[in-house]
């Protein structure tokens, strides 16, 4: 995960001294891959096996592959066609669909960023628990304490002005890729085709509705491991040759996809679906341990710890950055734009980390804290992703960014495929997670009203009222469902 240092002028990286080092093709591809792989890869095999057989896992990857590549290329196209919109993902939403959608896009992206760190916390401590058994499982009281200490350490670091993670990024990219490649290579030798094809479409053989359900169950998982794709694309702008930008993005995306497919598919060739679904976390460590012995688990767990620490720092920087930049743009209330003397976005950071702290306590009441937190992070990002895809469609049909007569078919297709993927994901996320996320989206509207007031705009438009009303009703429905025990975490 890599972030660009925030800049107080609101324009991005203008002075040459501030410009980051230009990268060659290989380094660029590594950066693209590295910014998507964080922690999800390490438990991917188990998370997919919980609800899906080998055949469904493969179908899930085909859908995800097509969707994510279309989305990634859409982001890339938008960066190139609309360099004027440099506030990141929410500025697309705002330019395309107005301030309310823009606000919710920023809000959802921010929600996802910090919810993802809640997932990281439990994943991290399940690995630490391999070495120090007090943390075993990663979601007991000791893990909450450990994660809290880490949380506020990172907080202090950022308040003191740490905002560049480039050295950290190089170290963590190596630390995560080495064990992952080792894993893939080593289990290749243990791969058993009969094991893999056994009950390929589940117990009852092929049955459309069961396979569809299985595929649906993998969608929040495969989305989770690809979160970061928007940042990866931005980074490919650091290419020293222009022609490398597109190439590195495509190769980076396909490379990441192949890595993920191999992790999940190969695992199903060394262990039964049922065993994988119930294996301890992080699955990759225990799968490798079953193949090569204890050192396998040691290697993977060390890799995970380094990788997740780096990703945690990167995503904390980003999570605080989003409301900060949005506030500078007048989309969030001004409160979020406050900086301390080290130019750290102090208010945004306190709120973000405060919420993470609060959510760490869900470890105690949820029996699948990791699944819960990453599914919520995936659901929360659906709005910003889907809206960006819609914007790609809009841009490819509009005036700005294209020379007269320039062909747009490719861009339009990308936008349509990415939009279809976005809509499919909203369906696949399922009612439970969508209701839970409205619970988090609804309070945001109060901040929207405040930001509008500060900008001198009183009252909401008809559409804004409708949006607010829908969110509020759904949030209440979620509360009632929780109260009745129909919705649990
Ligand atoms: N803290 C976050 N919001 N992380 C989101 C990124 C998840 C990343 N794709 C991973 O697999 O780990």
TrEMBL record:
Subcellular location: Cell membrane
Entry superkingdom: Bacteria
Protein family: Belongs to the amino acid-polyamine-organocation (APC) superfamily. Basic amino acid/polyamine antiporter (APA) (TC 2.A.3.2) family.
Source species of the chain: Exiguobacterium antarcticum
Transmembrane segments: 23-42, 48-73, 114-135, 141-159, 166-191, 215-236, 248-272, 292-318, 348-366, 372-391, 412-427, 463-483
Record keywords, A-Z: Amino-acid transport, Cell membrane, Membrane, Transmembrane, Transmembrane helix, Transport
Major subcellular site: membrane
Protein name stated in the entry: Arginine-ornithine antiporter
Pfam families per the UniProt record, alphabetical: AA_permease_2 (PF13520)
Membrane topology: Multi-pass membrane protein
């Amino acid at each position: 995960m890599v972030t660009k240092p925030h800049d107080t002028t609101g324009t991005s990286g203008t002075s040459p001294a501030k410009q980051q080092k230009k990268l060659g093709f290989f380094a660029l591809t590594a950066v693209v891959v590295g910014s998507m792989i964080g922690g999800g890869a390490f438990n991917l095999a188990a998370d997919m096996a919980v609800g899906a057989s080998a055949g469904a896992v493969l179908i899930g990857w085909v859908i995800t592959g097509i969707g994510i590549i279309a989305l990634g290329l859409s982001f890339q196209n938008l960066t190139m066609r609309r360099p004027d919109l440099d506030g990141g993902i929410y500025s697309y939403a705002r330019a395309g669909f107005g301030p309310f959608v823009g606000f919710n896009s920023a809000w959802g992206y921010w929600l996802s960023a910090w919810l993802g760190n809640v997932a990281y916390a439990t994943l991290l401590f399940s690995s630490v628990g391999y070495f120090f058994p007090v943390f075993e499982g990663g979601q007991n009281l000791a893990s909450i304490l450990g994660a809290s200490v880490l949380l506020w350490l990172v907080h202090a670091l950022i308040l003191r002005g740490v905002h560049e993670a480039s050295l950290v990024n190089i170290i963590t990219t190596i630390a995560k890729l080495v064990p992952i490649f080792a894993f893939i290579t080593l289990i290749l030798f243990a791969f058993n085709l009969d094991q893999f094809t056994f009950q390929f479409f589940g117990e009852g053989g092929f049955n459309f509705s069961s396979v569809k359900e299985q595929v649906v169950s993998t969608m929040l998982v495969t989305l989770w491991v690809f979160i970061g794709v928007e940042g990866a694309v931005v980074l490919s702008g650091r290419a020293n040759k222009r022609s490398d930008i597109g190439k590195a993005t495509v190769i980076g995306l396909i490379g990441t996809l192949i890595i993920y497919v191999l992790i999940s598919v190969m695992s199903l060739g060394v262990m039964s679906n049922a065993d994988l679904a119930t294996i301890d976390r992080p699955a990759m460590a225990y799968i490798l341990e079953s193949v090569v012995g204890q050192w396998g688990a040691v290697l993977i767990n060390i890799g995970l710890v380094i990788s997740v620490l780096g990703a945690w720092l990167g995503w904390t920087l980003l999570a605080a950055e989003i409301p900060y930049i949005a506030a500078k743009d007048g989309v969030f209330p001004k409160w979020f734009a406050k900086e301390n003397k080290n130019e750290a976005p102090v208010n945004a950071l306190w709120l973000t980390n405060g919420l993470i702290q609060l959510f760490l306590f869900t470890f105690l009441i949820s029996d699948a804290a990791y699944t819960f937190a990453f599914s919520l992070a995936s659901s929360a990002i659906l709005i910003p992703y889907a809206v960006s895809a819609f914007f790609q469609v809009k841009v490819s049909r509009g005036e700005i960014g294209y020379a007269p007569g320039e062909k747009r078919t490719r861009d339009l297709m990308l936008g349509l495929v990415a939009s279809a993927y976005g809509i499919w994901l909203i369906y696949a996320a399922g009612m439970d997670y969508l209701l839970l996320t409205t619970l988090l989206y609804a309070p945001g509207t109060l901040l929207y009203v405040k930001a509008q007031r500060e900008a001198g705009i009183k009252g909401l438009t008809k559409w804004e009222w409708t949006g607010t009303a829908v969110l509020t009703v759904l949030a209440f429905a979620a509360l009632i469902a929780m109260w009745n025990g129909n919705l649990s975490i």
